[in-house]
Amino acid sequence: MLQHKSRYKTNTFITGGIKILPLSKLMGAEVIGVDLRKPLNKTTKACIYEAFLKYQLLVFRNQDLNKSEQVSFTEQFGTLERHTLTNKGQSDSPFVHIVTNLDEHGHPTGKVKSTLWHSDKSFREAPSMATLLHAKCLPPNGGDTCFANMYAAYEALPDETQNELKDKKVVHSWELSRENIGRKLSQKEIDDAPPMTHPLVREHPETRRKCLFLGMHASHIEGQNILKSRLKIEALEKHATNENFIFRHRWRDGDLLMWDNRCLLHRADPNFDATQHPRVMHRTCLRGTPTI
């Protein structure tokens, strides 16, 4: 498994007054020399977005954004995505979802959410383009976020398998993914996020590269037996999340990550004592486009 290590030897690219430092051969780059609390000029914004498409995952160090500032930075790259009914964030900032293991009294619960591989909002008609996650309170160790590169996973498949998958569509269901973690949705929640169908092999709308599109919200292959086709999806996910395609981000105070949901899966690693230590993140999402 690739890890975020500053000793990774590669070139640093200086463009638009900022530095882009690739973090691995697979994905990820650190963006150096920008204060995200300030509006981006046209050149800097273009450089950041170019790096986003090239490296799929961007790391901004030593940031300290409040909710309003994070929303402002996020919407410079697109349209903010609404969260599901239970994740709408605090009333003072409905586009910010607080990812936390704390209860309403601020005490650690021992529970860590989003530990299964997924692409944010894949159950929407227009799945999320990007997620931005800002560290606000971290455990002393652990609490990593892992990413799996769906470009690389697809390209590693044999030609025969790629041909078998090219016309397959998958039903993505928020209801099913919640059942998988032991929670039954209300009818209001189901109506807010009904099942959607997307290609199993997705063409990225901007890079035009092909990638697998699956994760915990992927229920079954359309037109096939639900249980049998789910086994096929699980086998593909096992392939797509083996260590050859994974990058692990070890968080530091002030980190803000921005990643491309269209070609990455991610999950939180509960590799810390969640009964003793808080882990609090602020999450914003950008709306994508319908899949074709």
Write a structural description.
- By secondary structure, the chain is α+β, with helices and mostly antiparallel strands.
- The chain has one domain: Clavaminate synthase-like (Double-stranded beta-helix).
- Helices cover 21% and strands 25% of the residues.
- It has seven helices and 17 strands.
- An eight-stranded mixed beta sheet has the order 2-3-4-5-15-7-17-6, covered by helices on one side. It has a four-stranded mixed beta sheet with strand order 1-14-8-16.
- β11 (201-203) and β12 form a beta hairpin.
- It is globular and about 50 Å long.
- The model is unreliable at 4-9 (pLDDT under 50).
Structure described in brief:
The protein has a single domain (2-286), classed as Double-stranded beta-helix (4-Layer Sandwich), CATH 3.60.130.10.
Features:
about 290 residues, 7 helices, about 20% helix
Report the span from N to C terminus: 32 Å
Q: How do the SSEs run, as a string of H and E?
A: EEEEHEHEEEHHEHHEEEEHEEEE
Q: Quickly count the domains.
A: 1
Output mean pLDDT.
Answer: 90
Summarize the SSE layout with pairings.
Blueprint: E1 2-3, E2 13-15, E3 18-22, E4 29-32, H1 42-55, E5 57-60, H2 67-74, E6 97-100, E7 130-137, E8 145-149, H3 150-155, H4 159-165, E9 169-172, H5 174-179, H6 187-192, E10 196-199, E11 201-203, E12 210-212, E13 218-221, H7 226-240, E14 246-249, E15 256-260, E16 264-268, E17 280-286
Parallel strand pairs: 1-14, 4-5
Antiparallel strand pairs: 2-3, 3-4, 5-15, 6-17, 7-15, 7-17, 8-14, 8-16, 9-10, 9-13, 11-12
